[in-house]
Design a protein that fits this description.
By secondary structure, this protein is mainly α. Helix content is about 55%, strand content about 5%.
């Protein structure tokens, strides 16, 4: 990764490194990334995606050196139940599946279990669809969601 980064810099390309689930990283790893990025020109960016715990840990006094380099942070608000339902329908339409793929009970359980989290909703839907496919069922039920 470091060699690739240096090659991008030599070619005068802007480097964006995206790290998902950054809240799972050890703070020492983030500290090493900070030191690594000090060697690069300022136009390069490190983007961290993580749970709210990440900002809390970065706010501790011991991590002020990392926190001081954050130029922007945002909290994504949870979606309401109607938005989650619309998201599921939109995704089903995008893959040309019927909106009745999930029966009413399955849909309610997914919406309630996702608690406004789109990633959790997506994972529940995929897992339920896989479970229904294993049973050669065309309609996802509560049993598949569980």
């Amino acid at each position: 990764m470091i060699a690739c980064a240096y090659n991008h810099i030599k070619e005068r390309k802007t480097l964006y490194i995206l790290i998902d689930e950054a809240h799972l990283l050890d703070m020492q790893v983030l500290r090493k990334l900070r030191l690594l990025f000090e060697r690069f020109p300022k136009k390069h960016n490190l983007v961290l995606f993580g749970q709210r715990d990440l900002l809390h840990y970065l706010s501790l006094n011991v991590n002020k050196d990392i926190k001081s380099r954050i130029t922007y942070s945002a909290n994504i608000k949870r979606q309401n139940d109607d938005d989650i339902a619309r998201y599921i329908v939109k995704e089903l339409e995008a893959v040309r599946m019927g909106i009745n793929t999930f029966n009413e009970g399955a849909m309610e359980l997914i919406i309630r279990s996702a608690q406004g989290n789109l990633r959790l909703c997506r994972n529940l839907c995929y897992g339920s669809l896989i479970d229904a496919a294993r049973e050669a069922q065309k309609i996802v039920t509560i049993a598949h969601v569980r």
